[in-house]
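Reproducibility note. Readers wishing to regenerate the assembly model reported in the main text can use the exact inputs given here. Chain order matters: entities are listed in the order in which they were concatenated for prediction.
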Amino acid sequence: MLLTLASDAPAGAAPWWVMLIPALAMLGVVLCTLFAIMGVKSKLPAYATVGCLGLACALAFAMLLGYEDASGVVKAWQWFDISWGEGHGQTFSAIFGFYIDRLTILWMLFVTSLGTLIGLYASEYMSHDQGPGYCRFFMAFNLFVFSMSCLVMGANMLMLYLGWEGVGLCSYLLIGYFYKKPSAVAAGKKAFIVNRIGDLGLALGVYLTFVHFGTIEYAELFAGDKLQGYLSDVAHGHFEHIPMTAQMIPLLLTVGAIGKSAQLPLYVWLPDAMEGPTPVSALIHAATMVTAGVYLIARAYPLFQVSQFALPAVAWIGALTAFLAATIGMAQFDIKRIMAYSTVSQLGYMFAGLGVMTSIGAAAHVFTHAFFKALLFLCCGAVMHGFAGQLDLRKLSGLAKMKGWGIVSITMLIGCLNLVGFPVITSGYWSKDIILAEAFVRPSTGLVGWLLLITAGLTAYYTFRVFFRVFVGPVEYHPGEELHAHDDHAHGHAHDHGHGNVPAHGHAPNDAHDEAHGHFHPHAPGWAINTVLLILAILTFVAIPLVALSHGGWVGEMVHGSTAHFEAAHAEGGSHGSVWLAGLDPHKVMYYISGVVGVLGIVVAWALHYRGRREAAHAPAADAFKQAIGAVQRWAEHKWYVDELYDFLFRNPLWVLSQVFRYVDMLLVDGLVNTAGWLPSALGGRLRRGQHGLLQGYAGSMAGGLALFVVVVLLLVSKSA
Amino acid sequence: MTERLAYLWPELSLFVATCVVMVLGLSPSRETRRLCAWVSAIGLLVAAGLAANAPIDSEALLPHLMPFAKLLIALVGLVLLMLLAGTVDRDYEAEIASGRAVFNALRSNRAEFYSFFLFSLTGLMLTASAESLIWLFLALELTSLPTYVMVTISTRGTQSQEAGVKYFFLGALGAAFFLYGFALIYGGTGATHFADIAGIIATEGMNPILTLGMILGLIGVSFKIAAVPMHFYTPDVYQGAAASVSAMLAFVPKTAGFLAIIVLCALMGWRYGPGGESLPEAVRMLLWISAALTMTVGNTLALRQRSVKRLLAYSSIAHSGYMLVGVVAGPGSDPARFTTNGIAAVLFYLLCYGFMNVGAFAVLAALRRPDGTEADDIDDIRGLCHTQPLLGWSMVLCALSLLGMPPLLGFIGKFGLFTSAISAGEIVLVVILGLNSAVAAAYYLRLVVTPYLERPPERDAMGVQRVAIPSRPIVAVVSACSVVVLVLAAQFLVTRSAIAGRVLEARPPASADARP
Amino acid sequence: MLELAQGAFPEPLAGVTLAHYLVLSGAMFTLGLVGFITRRNLIIMFLCTELMFQAAGLALIAFSRYHLNLDGQTFVIFVLTVAAAEAALALALVVLLFRRRESLSSEDWSDLKG
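Running the prediction on these inputs yields the following structure tokens for the assembly.
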């Protein structure tokens, strides 16, 4: 019955033009490739990208307006239709098409709009690299948007997998963009390898879905009798009726999700991924790609419902990740890295949200986080761009007082407030709140709620630590090591400061450059960067009414109209009764508590990092505090030695194993030991004597072979006849 | 007769292009000579367009094979053309441009090179449309003869000449074998038209002369596909020729050979005999043994190679063995279903092999050592992903696809061969195919590991560089991309192959008598 | 089937059956093959392949007469054409090789191997 559906489109058809969204991104790839071949050295690739993605964004809005209520499938072509028998599960069919429901639209809205904005930003940010590198960057950028739209809009799990691998590839390519830098190459490799572990889980999950449900098309899968039967079992509390295979599927999908969304224990690649250009960090490693794991779980929410363990596991993973990443973020000095840890931490919130059955909260947080985190990264990028790659918060101070840095400072403040969840006026506050409240509603996950609440305080602290150190306080800066030709261009308007308090380059690490270039002058961001920052800052406010009303407002509605809404049927019913928090409804009381915690964190940061600070490198209060906690601080600074632990637990044994394999392989290929490889190799060695290079010999062998064939065949035939 | 011409428009367009190219290449004007490649490309594009719209010859044994094969040939031909551009006369043209030499039509090879390439493709298309033994023989010779010249003139070194002489003499020997086979087929049936031969075999069955003729014919033709026992020339010729020409050798004669083998088998019918199960026992046995030996010989010999071209030559032998499995399996009970139709699997595999193999050779062709020779040793591609990322990754992708790694095109190709052989009940052959795939992993993974995981050799002085022919890296990248991208169109291609691989059952004697 | 052939041949050759032709043709083919394998001179080797081609031609003509249709003879005309083309190619190749190494021994061309 599921199989008969395979050929025709299920319930409702999406309009054909939604296919233009990935097609436009693909057009961008093709154009940038052509530009690369033609050797274009202008900003043309950037404008082509912004144009293509802008149109795609417009289409995404059209999708929202004209297509709000229907969910449907649009098929480009039949991708696979392979059968190896007539029975159930012996036909594998998948379309190359798109499944549109409100969840898809929600995701596509911020993917395309951020893609456009960040493309515009990158046009300026990458301008020092105009030429082949510029084309390469935008090619990968467009390819990313294409893959992401396949991932989000795909009509089946195979499309999702295709997009999943595609975004992984783009991420790898863009992290390693500065491929001459060994650390960038290493980071790219790390991301690639860690993601493989997750991808293996996803691939197995998809495979098991096909084996168990006989289809991987969303439309058939979610409407299928089998899954619906399970769901009604679950609604009656009969988990024991559900086969183990079905319960395994969500766990495997979770493995995929934690790889892509950088959760425990696979989060280690994301902070290193900051080696890539900042626009990439903002788009891929903060706003969109890393939310693919959240999307996967939200999309496959019905599959998660049928497992007893999957969602609690997701909740715990999320909460622990959020907490751990926040503690690490507190002790870092590289502002981009701090933002990376905060991304990991916020993704943890989203996972926890999914785990405690508020897919609305998770989606709302994805939505708001996409804008404010992109904003924060782009601010960091502007700083990095202006100060020759300097990102150490001990070497920058008082940016807000410098000329030309006003917009960056203000938008940074807005971003920070959002990340903290400053009460009422920020969208981050409203979305985080839904998750926090729901975490306390569920009695089984009460501890998760506490972890998340503590994390909210830590988040406020480390976020404003950055703000108080870098953007306010005494003016002081030391340029980084990436001095490039832009120095002259920035000469004019940066000239009047720098002699303010401290010699600007007193401890500059790169004296040779200083001698060559004279004084270093930071150059403030130009119109493209400022415009994008302002738009994003405005968008974070626009998002407030979209998430702030009861049950997640507009975003809540969007989620309700999708596969992720299943929770409503099972979750909301009884649990409201079991009120916690001193007899008050956590939904209400959490508004106050989380607000207070956030403000508290900001105050602590102010006390430690702003009050009494006279220079960039040292804040007396914070240093004293550091002394006091001693080892804990050191451990956090070293990221709790997780990388080293992984080295010890996995990499070293694997290295030993790989050496063993290499040894075996060496011997195997050389045919020296009696292994399975010996025979073919030895046979090859024997046969090789036949390849002696003599014309006559070859002719003789051919004739002999011919004769032998004829004789053998005739003998065999006459024997069998 | 003129209405039969409608089927030959692609060949005719190629032939016209050939003649034009032959004249243009001898022009004293440098600009005119440069037109050769463009005219060839236009000829191929026109041929592709004509082939896509070709009428279906419902009389033919394999009515849908012709348009599919011709379109495939024209498209891969275009890619090959881009790869072959700049193979000959580069130094000479540079001398002329710098004024150190004057143009001498006798010294220039450009006209021959392009027109012979087009001739070879014309022959290949004619093989696809052959409807009699004479036609098939002429088409096969037209495919092969130009390639002998192309191998010989592809570089100025003695290695190319050695490759040329081996290829030519052994090729002539192979041609003599299948010519004698064709003579015996004629002797056994008294007809040269395929329709007549098929009708006679369907009514009267095989006789000893005919069987011997078929065996000789199939073994002779297996020279073109480099199958055991006619494979000996392959590594020497591929290594000696320029990489671009080797890429052509791995596709053009191989396709011709498979088309000829499919036609010869179709004459007897895959439902031959009282049970209607498979080819005549002797022929099936022959192909079976040949398939098993070819894969094994190719893969085991490739294991210890250090020359990448030689390695790819042995891999080419092995792939012929894989494809022979599809021929043994035959079109199956339901030819419309790709998974049981071995002929469709072979046709689809030719397409896959065309792209992934051209890609691998294109990477070699796009690199040159500091001394100007072509990259060939495995050390030349060490760390290529770091020094020449695009070429390095192209090599990695093509090697993974040749290995049959799951998401890539080669996997889908091999999948079809496996399933069709299983459904035909050739379990032993499937086991041999599986074992061989495992053995092949050992050397293909070297092509993956060497560029990707190993460090490039000490700085630039030693390393290989990209040649100044821009079309070659493009071919490498395009082929590598198509290995990924064509997977998206898998269903379309698979369906097309299944249609093309549909074989008409041998017709009743009535129609055999229709032609006097 | 072979003995049926007798009647098909004209009077002066009454004693000659198809089998005779085929034996002759087979002998030519084998001689050519043996010559190809044993001789080292490239020109002789090429002539040996010509001998094999002509053996096939002879068989074709005999079969043509036997079946009383012209297909086989038509075939032979084309075989001769192809043989001529191959001869042209072979001679060009041989000249080229001789210029390079001053020798026509096939053994001098065995650098490529393994």
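We highlight two features of this model. Chain A is about 65% helix and 5% strand. The CA atoms of residues 376 and 713 of chain A lie 76 Å apart.
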